[in-house]
Design goal:
The chain is mostly helical. It has two domains: 65 residues, no CATH class; 93 residues. Helix content is 74%, strand content 5%. A two-stranded antiparallel sheet has the order 1-2. A hairpin with a 4-residue loop joins strand 1 and strand 2. Helix 2 packs across helix 4 and helix 3 packs across helix 4. It is flat.
Length: 160
């Protein structure tokens, strides 16, 4: 996608988000056909529409997460300057709030602590899921790299 098309797409994402909220799947569904009519037609014919939708949702999420607006900064400054060092260290400008089913900007999370609580709980749950999966990969790594001669013959064959 050319830069001008990317900018237009991002602008359209924010227009649709103003109407539907910051729900990436809803935004993608609303604008997919209009933004990419030929691509959608071709993807439908080739049976790849679901994969295309997944990619568009991913891009919409990226746009929602990384929205940089000077207004947010001025609004944030009015909330409380004491939070600035904590906000500066955050990796994203908005976070997913499960109860709202949308990304919410950090200044809005600060103003609404219930949303902030939901966002932090969601992020923590995802982090725990990642750690559990990493533990599974660690166990697989140990099993794969195990040079124990008593390993099952089928496994030895695969590893050879």
């Amino acid at each position: 996608m050319l830069d001008s098309q990317s900018a237009a797409f991002a602008e359209r994402v924010w227009e649709v988000a103003a109407q539907l909220g910051n729900n990436a799947p809803k935004i993608a569904d609303d604008m997919m056909e209009a933004a990419f009519p030929l691509t959608c037609t071709q993807a439908r014919q080739e049976g790849a529409l679901r994969m295309l939708r997944t990619g568009i949702i991913s891009e919409v999420k990226r746009i929602l997460r990384n929205h940089d607006d000077g207004l947010y900064q001025s609004d944030f400054a009015e909330v409380c300057a004491a939070f600035a060092p904590l906000v500066k260290d955050l990796r994203s400008k908005s976070y997913f709030v499960e109860s709202a089913e949308e990304y919410v900007a950090v200044p809005d999370l600060i103003v609404e602590p219930d949303l902030l609580d939901d966002a932090r709980r969601f992020m923590r749950r995802k982090g725990v899921e990642c750690l559990v999966e990493a533990d599974r990969l660690d166990a697989l790594f140990v099993a794969v790299t195990n040079t124990n001669p008593g390993a099952a013959p089928a496994c030895q064959e695969v590893l050879s």
